[in-house]
Amino acid sequence: MQLAIKRIIFFAGLFGFWELAIRIFNIPAVILPSPVDVLLSLRESLVDGSLLEDLGASFTRLIIGLSIALIIGVLLGVFLAKVRTADETLGSLILALQSIPSIVWLPLAIMWFGLNEKSVIFIVILGAAIVMTINMRTGVKNVQPLYIKAAQTMGSTGIDLFFRVILPAAVPYAVTGSRLAWAFAWRALMAGELLSTGPGLGYTLKYASDFGRMDMVIAIMVIIGVIGVTVDILIFQRIENRVMVKWGLEQKKAA
Amino acid sequence: MFLTIKNIQKSFSNYGNPEQVLKDINLYIKEGEFVSLLGPSGCGKSTLLNIVAGLLNPSKGELHLEHNKITKPGKDRGMVFQQAALFPWLSVEENIMFPLKNEMKKKKAREIAQEYLQLVQLSSYAKHSPHELSGGMQQRVAIARALAMNPRVLLMDEPFGALDEQTRIRLHGELERIWSETKKTILFVTHSIQEAIKLSDRIIVMGTHPGRILKVIPVNMERPREKHIQQIAHYEEMIMKLLKNEMDKVAEEESQYAVSY
């Protein structure tokens, strides 16, 4: 059976089961709304334009935060890979920071920047920059020595060697880093918005929850999930696959 | 002399113990000559080639190409490795343009790239990515790339070692043709006796522990050589005899190594 058909049957079954369970056990909508309610509230937020507004606000923050994080990540990653002392000191700090979810910085961020957009963007940057840094560092460090030797025999050294060989050779790691950075940024953004101010998807979710609108809460959760998967598959996985094949790290998948 | 290799010694530190890899290497190579370095693994033939390339420094001794002392890698010595080492982010043509880019206009570099792609008969693959080419084709591009910067010497480190037999035989013919067309001096590292006999003007037979020159064998045979089966067999026998001792030595050392553990 084809993949698409399998999936359609699975999700149809899931929704049917969900609807059925609610009717049989008479579950109130505040505990768990029915899929129909969720669909209706999705439509409602689409029609009155609030969904687009929230998406716009969230994505603006995300793009600002992610862009800054990627720039920081690339620069810091290269710096750590090239300067040994920095790697041994600052590098260990960054590894330690990686195990702290970026959202726990929010109380501090609010003290520093106030209860506003800047705090959320700060959380996004922190979440994404660290994973990008670590990947970029690995990428620059793991350049095949053969590439460097070959370039040297062709008269390339120093900065020329760095920009024309080492940096492009690290691209696969940079792409994987960006993909992870996006995933981290998206999670950090939602958490940040949930605990901070709006407009934005996370804020609307919090707002709906305060009014007991669980249908709206689930609708937004669905949107968050769909966007997360879509961006990952449509943008990052595609780029990653293409780079992996081109850089000879992976065979082309049979179509 | 064109390329002079004088009194080269090379030691590496092996877990704190210095180990001599090359001992008293003296070699004089004429312009346009095809010279092979032949020997079992561990004889330091690749190390010697890397020293000529400038990728390694000798512990003692000096090398001169014409009148220039060799101290670091340079465009006067093109190198082809066992792996093609093409840059995957560049097209075939851009790969060949890589060494030319800083010294000429793009248009001129592209013309030269075209010329050398023609030499290795891959003109129609200029815009392809390296990963779309077979191993043999990639190696031909690597040869074109090394030649495009017009080096005085072409250094080849077991360039066909990773290819299958059929491809290797075809590339032998190809390399012979390229050599006769470009008149380049070639220093060629191999562990294949047949390969060395088929291609070289002179074969430098090397032994192990320490890596040293056992004998220099001039190959006086008409080209192409595949037809002269008897002569080939004669050279083969001579080299086999020379290397027999060495191979026994290697085998014995390996077994001792195993026992000592």
SSE order and pairing:
The complex is a heterodimer of chains A (255) and B (261).
Chain A: H1 3-25, H2 35-47, H3 50-82, H4 84-98, H5 106-113, H6 117-141, H7 145-153, H8 158-169, H9 171-195, H10 201-210, H11 214-246
Helix pairs in contact in A: 2-11, 3-4, 3-6, 3-9, 3-10, 4-6, 5-6, 6-9, 7-8, 9-10, 9-11, 10-11
Chain B: E1 3-14, E2 17-29, E3 34-38, H1 45-53, E4 60-65, E5 68-69, E6 77-80, H2 92-97, H3 106-119, H4 135-148, E7 153-157, H5 165-182, E8 185-190, H6 193-199, E9 202-207, E10 212-218, H7 229-259
Parallel strand pairs in B: 3-8, 3-9, 6-7, 7-8
Antiparallel strand pairs in B: 1-2, 1-4, 4-5, 9-10
Task: Explain this structure.
The complex is a heterodimer of chains A (255) and B (261). Chain A has 255 residues and is mainly alpha-helical. Chain A folds into two domains: 1-30; 33-246, MetI-like fold (Orthogonal Bundle), CATH 1.10.3720. In chain A, 81% of the residues lie in helices and 0% in strands. Chain A is built from eleven helices and no strands. In chain A, helix 3 runs parallel beside helix 6 and helix 3 (50-82) crosses helix 10. The longest helix of chain A has 33 residues, at 50-82. The model of chain A has no long low-confidence stretch (mean pLDDT 90). By secondary structure, chain B is of the alpha/beta class. Chain B has one domain: 3-Layer(aba) Sandwich (Rossmann fold). Chain B has seven helices and ten strands. In chain B, the strands form two sheets. A six-stranded mixed β-sheet of chain B has the order 6-7-8-3-9-10, sandwiched between helices. In chain B, 40% of the residues are buried. Chain A binds chain B through residues 146-147, 149-156, 160, 164-165, 168-169, 171, 245-248, and chain B through 53-55, 73-75, 77-79, 81, 83, 85, 87-89, 98-99, 101-102, 129-131, 145-146, 149, 155.
